[in-house]
Design goal:
This protein is an alpha+beta fold and 769 residues long. Among the domains are: 218 residues, no CATH class; 113 residues, 3-Layer(aba) Sandwich (Calcium-transporting ATPase, cytoplasmic domain N), CATH 3.40.1110.10; 142 residues, Up-down Bundle (Four Helix Bundle (Hemerythrin (Met), subunit A)). Helix content is 58%, strand content 14%. The protein has 25 helices and 22 strands. The strands form four sheets. The chain has a seven-stranded mixed sheet, sandwiched between helices. Helix 9 runs parallel beside helix 21 and helix 10 packs parallel to helix 21. The protein is elongated, with a radius of gyration of 34 Å.
Length: 769
């Protein structure tokens, strides 16, 4: 019965605003028809009914605000409605009633955009466990698991409680806890936290905590607590009402005392009815919500948009927010006599049958390079070690290597992986190391430009919180110019950090994982990457980015700042006009009915101004034409294809460590062909097709001048490499004095190309939708 009563109350709350809008509009219209027909008494009765219909819920709203310690804009409306009834100014009362109903309906419509709960967090939480007693395994409720119980966790199952691995190796997807996409391994005796998903074979777990004392339960508690502690937002309209309300009452009281006419006091209240606050501010905010929705940003309510517009601190998760959230092949090292494409094709042929996150990245890279995968038989996978199979007569494995000593090329690859913070998948053919694939979660191409735009929108402090290691976190922070970075953060650490930032400024938190949900709820505004992030983070957030683009956050911030500015302009202009009308009413120059009509004119003016929030801010928004966007997409795809050319340049430089090796010069010749046939035509096409189109969108040729200079340097270095080859061909070999300069040209070209590609992807390619 209690649940049914709550449902009824919720339905009543949802229905009041639309019903009130219909009733007041109908009463005003019916009274107008009766007045035109000459039935003045019937007209007054209709208008009085509309006024009474509005005053009842308005009193309830005022009492609710007073209980929370605030006297909002509705109090002036209630006084004006009561005054019109007392003095018989029924038309004025009906007009005020309609304005009040319209403003409340607009506000309520915005607030019904999304719910704020923990449903998906609770759905993910394990409810049972498989307990082993002797040789028997039984499924028991999670509440019955005690410390010391031996549990069995099967493939794909969620770790039910905290504990340690008893037997076997646990391969876990702990992204729900840390936000990191790379799987982790836990050997016998190592600790495991609840909430992780078993991505390998079955293992036994010795329970070290009960359900209530485990990590996942703590995340749920943190999210609940953070959501409950969120302070109520003081809306823009209420802040203005704090000084407008006492001023209105003072003017009305003075007019009554000086003139002795209560009608003058009512006239002051009528023209002072804060319709610019009740209508203009909500219209601007709702227009901003609509504009944000068209950009793929769902905002829970107008309060969230207002708060985003005055935020000064932005806290960001790393994986899935600033990075793509999916590992990608960064580099491929091949043993002498083997090419990178051969290494990738062999590795992808075996890994195409594996569900491992790194295996998917390797397979995706092979497909992107259009490599033919070979038939594989006898495929097997050992959790934590990798996949094996037979290709023809050869035994091929991809994954970890054994402890044997490494050849020079492999040590170079391992060192590069350490410096780049990358994972390594080793390829072994018949027991011999043949290649190494370096994988890393790459930075989003639109992240640097997004953060620059956010600073332009008023964000003064950028902080990254991540569960990842300190080295890759610091590297990303340096690239993006963040103000602070904290690594190895647990969900509780993130909540504490967000609360500390809230104590200094209005704080926005952006994340995508279940582990981010408590911090999202603790922030003034929580923003979830909803396209690929967890549904729990979306449910705990105030704003959800529905497209997998972090630059939509900058769009939302710009929209919020502009909508709030327009709302303030509309409200202040409307109140200034109302003050002028109040002065006229106080001197008896404006009767209540005429004042109500004048107030309608003021409302129309401020609402038209507020509707400007529907449009784009031309000064801050870069719009590219469809033809230019197609060019961007074309050249972005070519960048992906040319990545192997860029890496081939560095490999050729590496081979020059032994210039006497005939293969070294052959490698440089191969690079020269790649440059002349593939890379340089791409750069020429960019210069003559893409850059002129971008210049029109970005404001002139100066916008692309720096990148054009990079094209010149690329052509200079490529020409210098070709000249070295012509000299070597004339002599039959590289002269000793050529080697250092040729190696410098190759390394220099590699660096320029990497920087140039990154700048184009950040500044230009991120403009495409």
């Amino acid at each position: 019965m209690a649940g049914e009563a709550r449902s009824v109350r919720a339905w009543v709350r949802r229905s009041v605003e639309p019903v009130l809008l219909v009733v007041t509009a109908a009463a005003l219209a019916a009274g107008g028809v009766a007045w035109l027909a000459g039935a003045r008494s019937a007209a007054d009765a209709c208008w009085a009914a509309g006024t009474v219909a509005a005053i009842v819920p308005a009193v309830a709203w005022v009492l609710h605000a007073l209980r929370r310690g605030r006297a909002g804009v509705d109090l002036i409306a209630v006084l004006a409605l009561a005054g019109t009834l007392a003095t018989g100014e029924y038309l004025a009362g009906a007009l005020i009633a309609l304005m009040l109903a319209t403003g409340r309906w607009l506000d309520a419509a915005a607030e019904r955009r999304a719910s704020h709960d923990l449903r998906h967090l609770l759905e993910h939480a394990p409810r049972s466990a498989r307990r082993r007693v002797g040789d028997e395994v039984r499924t028991v409720p999670l509440a019955e698991v005690a410390v010391g119980d031996l549990l069995v966790v099967g493939p794909g199952e969620v770790v039910p409680v905290d504990g340690r691995v008893e037997n076997g190796t646990a391969v876990l997807d702990e992204s729900v806890l840390t936000g990191e996409s790379l799987q982790v391994e836990r050997g016998a005796g190592e600790s495991v936290r609840s909430g992780g998903v078993n991505a390998g074979g079955a293992f036994e777990l010795r329970a070290g905590a009960t359900e209530q004392d485990s990590a996942y339960a703590e995340i749920v508690r943190l999210a609940r607590q953070a959501g409950a502690e969120s302070a109520p937002v003081i809306r823009l309209a209420d802040r203005y009402a704090a000084w407008f309300l006492p001023l209105t009452l003072a003017v009305a009281g003075v007019a009554w005392l000086v003139s002795g006419s209560v009608v003058r006091a009512v006239a002051v209240l009528v023209v002072a009815t804060p319709c610019p606050l009740l209508l203009a501010a909500p219209v601007a905010i709702v227009s901003g919500l609509s504009r944000a929705a068209r950009q793929g940003v769902v905002v829970r309510d107008g309060a969230a948009l207002e708060t985003l517009g005055r935020a000064r601190t932005l806290v960001l998760d790393k994986t899935g927010t600033l990075t793509s959230g999916r590992p990608r092949v960064l580099d491929i090292a091949a043993a002498p006599g083997t090419t990178p494409d051969e290494v990738l094709a062999l590795a992808a042929s075996v890994d195409q049958y594996s569900p491992h996150v790194l295996a998917r990245a390797i397979t995706d890279e092979a497909h992107a390079r259009r490599l033919a995968l070979r038939p594989v038989r006898d495929v097997a996978e050992e959790p934590g070690h990798g996949a094996t199979g037979r290709i023809g007569a050869a035994a091929v494995s991809v994954g970890k290597r054994d402890g044997a000593s490494l050849p020079t090329w492999a040590r170079t690859a391992e060192n590069r992986a350490t410096l780049d913070g990358a994972a390594v998948a080793w390829l072994t053919v018949d027991g011999r190391l043949t290649g190494a694939l370096l994988l890393r979660d790459p930075l989003r191409g639109d992240a640097p430009r997004t953060l620059r735009r956010l600073r332009e929108a008023g964000i003064q402090r950028l902080l990254m919180l991540t569960g990842d290691r300190a080295e890759p976190a610091r590297e990303i922070a340096a690239v993006l110019g963040l103000d602070d970075v904290r690594a190895r953060q647990s969900p509780a650490d993130k909540v504490a950090a967000v609360r500390a930032e809230r104590g200094r400024a209005v704080t926005v938190m952006v994340g995508d994982g279940v582990n981010d949900a408590p911090a999202l709820a603790a922030a003034d505004v929580g923003v979830a990457m909803g396209a690929r992030g967890s549904s729990a983070s979306s449910e705990a957030a105030d704003i959800v980015l529905t497209t997998d683009r972090v630059d939509r956050l900058a769009d939302a911030a710009g929209i919020a700042v502009r909508a709030r500015r327009i709302a303030a302009q509309s409200a202040l202009a409307g109140m200034a006009m109302s003050l002028a009308a109040m002065t006229a009413a106080a001197f008896g120059l404006l009767p209540p009915a005429a004042g109500a009509l004048l107030q309608e004119g003021i409302d129309v003016a401020v609402i038209l101004n507020a509707l400007r929030a529907l449009g784009a801010d031309r000064a801050a928004h870069v719009t590219v034409e469809p033809a230019t966007e197609q060019l961007i997409q074309r050249f972005a795809a070519e960048h992906d294809d040319l990545r192997e050319v860029v890496e081939a340049v560095r490999e050729a430089a590496d081979h020059l460590t032994d210039p006497a090796d005939p293969a070294a010069l052959d490698t440089v010749r191969h690079v020269d062909r790649l440059l002349s046939e593939r890379l340089l035509p791409h750069e020429v096409a960019e210069e003559h097709e893409l850059y002129p189109a971008l210049a029109r969108a970005l404001g002139g040729p100066e916008a692309t001048a720096t990148m054009s200079r990079a094209h010149t340097e690329i052509h200079r270095l490529a020409h210098r490499i070709a000249t070295h080859l012509r000299l070597a061909d004339a002599e039959g070999a590289l002269r000793p004095e050529q080697v250092d300069d040729l190696r410098a040209c190759l390394y220099g070209l590699h660096s320029v190309l990497r920087l140039h590609f990154t700048q184009e992807e950040e500044n230009y390619f991120s403009l495409a939708h």
